Amino acid sequence: MSIRHRFILLILGSVAGFFSILVLVNHSLNQLENLKRIDSQLANSHIRLLEMAHAEQEFSLNNQARAADQFHALAGQLQQTLQQLEPAFIEQQLPIQALQNAKQDALSYQTAFQQLEQKKNALGLTPITGIYGQLREAVHQAEEVINARHQVALNAAMLMLRRHEKDFMLRHQLKYLDKFERAVDSFDQQLQQSDLSIPVKQQIAQHMQGYEQTFRRFVDLSKQVGLAPDKGALGQLRKQGQQLTFQLEEIHQQTAQQVQDLIAEKRLTTLVLTLLLCVLLCISSVWLAYRVVSRINLLLMHMTEIADGDGDLSARLISNSPDELGELARAFNRFIEKIRNSIKHAANTAQSLQVSAGDLKTTANETLEACYLQDQRLSELKQALSDTSSHSQTVKAKVDSAREMTEQVNAQSEEIAYLARQNQAASKQLINDVETAVQEIEQLEQDSENISEVMTSIAEIAAQTNLLALNAAIE
Question: What is the pLDDT of residues 90-114, one digit of tens each?
Fold first, then answer.
């Protein structure tokens, strides 16, 4: 793998690592956002529960139908919120069983309130409804008869009964029931002792019996409703409300703890992954830098050895890697090999030139000696030719003398004249031959001078060749 590809791979790994961290952080933020949303919905559920408790108290204490309607509306909103939380709990792996228990408790709380509402409606939310209305109607019938008869004692006894009735309704204590029963007995005694007619007494007694029975039913139903906050339907409602509150608070605490744990976990995970990525990047960068720098230093050391050494070109860089430095090392080896081959070829050529120059020098020396010898011989030949020329002049003089003698002796025979003419022709031919020989000797002397110049040039060439061979050997 090349260095470029390694750097690209390192960069891609870094980008992938940082992208993974970003994805992890984004996922963590989404989880935190979902958990915050769950926490907000749980807080809203808790607020709904508090509003339901307030509506419950308004209904229980003031018998307001509007409070009951508000309770049912808030209960529906609470059930809807808890139903919406279920998929989020499953997605965030929160305790779904606790949420289901809270939903069941909310349903039980609503059911308990409905039971309380039914009993409160049976008791009567207003003075004209329910048992409360029947009670008032019964006592008003008895009071009308008594007031029509102007019975002061019976009116006083009736007021005492009404007082105990009101005390029970306000304080919800059974002792007022006992007082009511004793007051009923006292009223019956006074009724029997009154001067009213028997039919009137029977009518009043009948109304009072209905009043007493209605009050007892009111008391029994009040017991079912709850004479104390922890009794009857009120106690069950309070218990269900407290249980639901506990469940929601527990879920809220678990969710808050889950958020804190998730924050700590994601912070630790992000920190560990970031540190791990940084460590891997540092290790990869150091390793890659070490690989590159060490091999560059090795290449520099070899090149320094070659540059500062004794010209040893046998050194080679060993690198089997397929990257750029391996290619550089192999190219360097090829370059050194070419230089070595060139210098070797130059050395061989210089050696051959030196041998050829030696041979040429020997040949030139031999040629020079031959030229000296030839020059000496030519000098001797020239001297001989000079002597021959002198003799020829002498012969010519003698011929002239003979010609003169011949001219003088005209009487010689034709044979002598013929011989003389032949002798004269031979002499002329000899003179021509001598002149030709002189010209050839002069040409030979000129050629000897040219040969001397050639030998001088050859000597200079041999000296330059020796100088070139020496320079090549030095290089």
Answer: 887 777 888 888 888 888 888 988 8
Measured between its terminal Cα atoms, the distance across the chain in Å is 40
Lookup result for tokens 């210089």? 350
* Each residue's pLDDT tens digit, 381-416: 667 667 655 655 765 666 566 567 667 756 665 776
> Which of 165, 181, 182 lies closest to 173 in space, CA to CA?
165
Tokens found for residue 192: 């029997």
- pLDDT computed for residue 73 by the predictor: 92
Query: Token pair 């007494």 is at which residue?
Result: 201
Whole-angstrom Cα distance, residue 388 to residue 8?
A: 104
For the question of whether the overall pTM of this predicted structure is more than 0.90, the answer is no
Give yes or no for a contact between 24 and 269, defined as CB atoms under 8 angstroms apart: yes
Residue linked to tokens 């791979």? 9
How far is 258 from 34, CA to CA, in rounded Å?
A: 12
325, 319 contact by CB (below 8 A): yes
What element of type H or E holds 316?
Answer: none
Q: Which of 469, 214, 210, 164 is nearest to 347 (CA)?
A: 469
Give the HSE-up count for residue 280: Cα atoms under 13 Å, Cβ half-sphere.
16
What is residue 429's DSSP assignment?
H
Q: How far is CA 447 from CA 378, 386, 433, 444, in A?
A: 11, 20, 20, 5
DSSP 227: S
